[in-house]
């Protein structure tokens, strides 16, 4: 039986999204002009984006939410999009994780205030791959799960243990990071590199892993991103490494090929928020990889999906089927 589909595991959180008129100085005031709530976290966002892109694609999830109202909400989201929730655990020991997402109206930039909650309870023992026929495990977010972040005596951590177990059970592996302090990111990610097939990160994150300054005064240095990607590629077992940034992406493969692509230009009046763009990019790229598309076609879908996601304040609110996302991209090219 050939493998098909994904396991999107790790972070499940409630995103309370607040659109604000400006980012305040400390002790200052900013007006909230709109409020919305949706599920968030890498497992939720990438899993649902994949289902939206292709409703025929099997997607399972592994995670931990509280036995509370927020947990009910997240569980209903998973069921609404027909994710396999067999290993989505409910616990009374901790409240469901949540994130306050502050999104600035005029720029689309967002800032996160996160409570880890029940995500801290997740540990390698919760992951059972023995009966899975999925092809790819996508796992995140590193640094937001105490039980997986904890180091092991042999230099591994919970993340690397899960990845090694997934590979032993026939899955390809991918992780997702979050932009925290570089030292902590590097410490958590390096043990995972020998157990990874795909690594998709942003410009800050690739710099953190390689210990190279890749962003200067808020501007991406593409050449340094490429340098950092080469360093990281040499340290791991990945067959594909991609780095995305606002204006484009670079991609390296294990055959030595390197590709630099540009993001789609979305008019400012169509942009509601960039809160889901990174996960949408990941979903589009991993879908193409899953389908064995050429890398340039996979990257094209990644950019199209990310552009489509910008139209909503929420993480998955404006991602649609592949055909609909492509129609949106065609409309952009005609303007």
Provide the descriptors you would attach to this structure in a database record.
15 strands; nine-stranded mixed beta sheet; 10 helices; alpha/beta; 335 residues; four-stranded mixed beta sheet; globular; single chain; UDP-N-acetylmuramoyl-L-alanine:D-glutamate ligase
Cα separation of the termini: 46 Å
The name of the CATH topology is: UDP-N-acetylmuramoyl-L-alanine:D-glutamate ligase
The H/E string reads EEEHEHEEEEHHEHEHEEHEEEHHH
Largest sheet: 9 strands, mixed
The amount of beta strand, in percent, is 25-35%
Shape: globular
Helix content: 25-40%
Identify the quaternary structure here. single chain
Cα Rg: 19 Å
Low-pLDDT regions: none
User: What is the overall number of helices?
Assistant: 10
Query: How many separate domains?
Result: 1
CATH class: Alpha Beta
CATH homologous group name: Ribokinase
Walk me through the topology.
Blueprint: E1 6-10, E2 13-20, E3 32-40, H1 42-53, E4 59-66, H2 69-80, E5 84-91, E6 98-104, E7 110-115, E8 136-140, H3 146-149, H4 158-168, E9 172-175, H5 182-189, E10 198-202, H6 203-210, E11 215-216, E12 219-220, H7 222-235, E13 240-245, E14 248-253, E15 258-262, H8 277-290, H9 295-309, H10 322-334
Parallel strand pairs: 1-4, 1-8, 2-6, 4-5, 8-9, 9-10, 10-13
Antiparallel strand pairs: 2-3, 6-7, 11-12, 13-14, 14-15
Helix pairs in contact: 1-8, 5-6, 6-7, 8-9, 9-10
